Amino acid sequence: MERARGWKVGDPGELAEQVARTRSNLPPNRAHIDAREVERAAFGVVGHRDLAFQVWEDAHAAAVGAWRECRRRMRREYGGRSPHGGWTFPVLFLSLLAAGVGAALASGARTDPEATQGVLAVLVGGSTVADLVVLAVAGWRPWNRAVVRLQIGLAIALGAATAFQLSRPEMWVLPLVIAGGVIGVGGMLLVLLVRMLRPEERLEIDTVINVAVERMQPELDARVAEIRANASEELGVEDSARIVALRTAVLADLAAEGIVLEPVPEQTPAGGAMIAALTAHWHPYSRQKA
Predict the structure, then answer these.
(1) DSSP secondary structure string, 175-201?
(2) Of 178, 206, 234, at which residue does a domain stop?
(3) Domain extent at residue 128
(4) What pTM, to 2 d.p., does this model score?
């Protein structure tokens, strides 16, 4: 790409021409225009299109890698109880679905309970066994709130299936359903009791994501600083100043037309807008706080 040679920062005529070129490289849909796109286009106009793509790719990879590493560390430390990647949540979720369907069959609202005993036995038996496995693996350690809610729902579903079966003449599946209801309710009481008796561990498992994010943030910040330093070294002082001036002018030009974007301080180095936009929400919970 042709480089913008001869343009000096502070030359209004040349700056206006570069602003027009930059704007011509922005997405045609105004909804897709943001500060990082403006900066990417400015890189291209100044002659560093490939570097812009490299900075973009590095920043994106840093954000994705940070969240991946967070999840890996949570799985390593908490195993099946990890809120991300732990197997207890999906197992209990499927158990809850099975128990819910079992309760619907036991109610006899749409099917003949006598004819669906075999299916009911499979559903209740499967969800009960899965619940027992999860309870055994967790042992005397608290679960996080999401899993506790699933256990409460499972207890309600199995309890409802038991109540429906007890309300009609005895069937061969009744003992199995009663055992499932007892285990479901007993499991609920157990997990609530453990959380009550172990408040420190309960707080730890409830805040594990926050802690993992806080521990990872300095590492991501260091990687961001490295990407910025590499970009500045590749650009040099003169081209860095050109990109910053061009970015600032284009943002002001857009604002004058009513396209107000998130402000970028002038002291933000070239590449900083792209890097900040791509790494600010590196984990899904950051957008909930924003």
Answers:
(1) HHHHHHHHHHHHHHHHHHHHHHH-HHH
(2) 206
(3) 87-206
(4) 0.80
